[in-house]
Amino acid sequence: xPLSFRQNEILDIVRAEGRVMVDDLAQRFDVTLQTIRRxxxxxxxxxxxxxxxxxxxxxxxxxxxxxxxxxxxxQQAKAAIARTCAAAIPENCSLIMNLGTTTEAVAQxxxxxxxxxxxxxxxxxxxxxxxxxxxxxxxxxxxxxxTDGGLVGELTTQFFEQFKVDIAVIGASALDQDGDILDYxxxxxxxxxAIIRQARKVFLVCDGSKLDRSAPARLASLAEIDTxxxxxxxxxxxxxxCNDWGTRVVVVPALD
Length: 256
Known about the structure:
Blueprint: H1 5-17, E1 20-21, H2 22-29, H3 33-45, E2 49-52, E3 55-58, H4 67-72, H5 75-87, E4 94-97, H6 101-109, E5 116-120, H7 123-129, E6 135-139, E7 143-145, E8 150-152, H8 154-160, E9 165-170, E10 174-175, E11 180-183, H9 186-197, E12 199-205, E13 217-221, E14 227-230, H10 236-245, E15 248-251
Parallel strand pairs: 4-5, 4-9, 5-6, 9-12, 12-14, 14-15
Antiparallel strand pairs: 1-3, 2-3, 7-8, 10-11, 11-13
Helix pairs in contact: 2-3, 5-6, 6-7, 8-9
């Protein structure tokens, strides 16, 4: 079935923003709520997106979205999360930073930090922080993933096992209702598990769209995280679990 002009525009918006709401789309296109719901249902039936309560998100499956598409999604939310996370990171400390576009946003916010050591398997993080003369950068070995500049594999895991750092800053592909942190790549999961083991504190940076996604590989539980930085309140059951686990949840307001 060919897509209408409006449906093509809706797809462009959901790919760029990571989530669309029926009310917002109806106002943007000056049509009724029923018209937008019908458009979203048609797009979901054709496999272009997934319906969620009140709106829609990009269609997810066994593979992650492309790097450039992920980088463009929810940019304002990622920037706000990154700013708040970076403010919680003191100077004169050591960090491990893993793969992810939100992790890269945190690196951007660390450009003024002094006397920090960053160990990373993310070439993009290393390139960003190269502009900070007060940051010592150590890059892991491993197999280079050209799609996103990530280094993964057994060599990467062994590299991280040589360190014990103050804080790990990690990202995730998805969060489920049980509080499990999920990803797509088992090699990346093994590296991230090692990162968590080698850090005294673990910060998870994760925008709210990850609550609407799923991925097949379990990385860890929020019970293993010290602080979650996000832009949307967690579902009430999950928020209670985080409270029981002692996991701090920081909900960051959007940037103006």
